[in-house]
Amino acid sequence: MHPMVKPALRRGWRDLNTVQFGMTPAHALTLGPMDTATGSFLELLNGTRGLPLLREEARRMDLPDGHVDTLVRRLAHAGLVDDARGGGPAAEALRAKEDVLRRLRPDLASLSLTSPEPGGAIGRLAARRSLRVQVRGAGRVGAVLASVLSGAGVGEVDVRDVGRVEPWDVAPGGLSAESLGDRRDEAARASARDAAPDRPPRRPHAPGSGARDPGLSLVILSPRDDVAVHAPDPLAAEPLMASGTPHLYAGVVEGTGVVGPLVLPGQSGCAGCLHRNRTDRDPAWPRLVAQWRSGKARQVGACDLALATTVAGLAAAHALTFLDGESPTAAGVRWEVSLPALDWRPRPVWPHPACACGAAEKGNEKYTSAEGEPRETMAVQQPSTERRRGTGSARRTGTWRAHV
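RESULT FIELD:
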């Protein structure tokens, strides 16, 4: 092990005996008592020395025997230590790609904040390279979202859509003005490849939806049609539900951005649950949806560029959190934000007992079908929340993991 105090956290002395690591409440913690000599020794924990050499340095600084091991163990228990050579073979292979790793250094530093174990951050970053994500929809949201995931190190990002690039599809980070008239899906794939830190081998794209492809870690549905954003069609997701493929919804409808739900088949509320819960609250809902779907589609919807970019970024963040093995708050929740106030609101998508997805059978907790109205006593078992680092922050934990 080559210990390294995580460089993503700024360090400062609160007093003569207490060191604070980090600035923000979500990740900051204090450690003490710590003497000045030990504080100076922290500078040597930079990943360039193994434990034997660190012990020699400690003896030259007149630190007591066993002090280094105790200090490293204490810092590691607090989640403050990384291993400059840890993470396994995949991480070692990534380190060998110096140009790629330089591109991903900010992502690696960010992952170190949420990966308490030494070597965990680069291990997760390396694992992203083996993942395959499919984005369905290459409009202002989907194309940008695909490029963000690719730029963050996801190994393969496939994009599916129809038609050709129109002027209103163009967005920074997504489809370019040079791609006008090109096939949407091909242009979006090219944009995602251009954003990647390196070029993974290209795989042939078979015709069809690809829903039953066992290699897909996640499917993101970001339709350009605003009705599909507001009222996701459960039939469109049936192949994903049948194959057990996790999927996330994202899009913009009438000046409102939507991220979620992240559907974990059989465990969290799905599009069918969403439709049934809305019907319970509003009997006219099915009638309205039928009219919206059968009406003439809008050629250009109300999709503010800044809002679309925000939605794409948040959806990518939720997707990466899931792909990295954590449980994002989009699991079973639709996050909505509307212009001009831009106030994000969580809308729970509770498992519905009448839905064939079976998520309501996974637990026996009470749930609500709307904002606070109790309905039944069967619901998905929600991920637990554990206190973390004594700073008032919390970390959600769950058991669902992305397929690698």
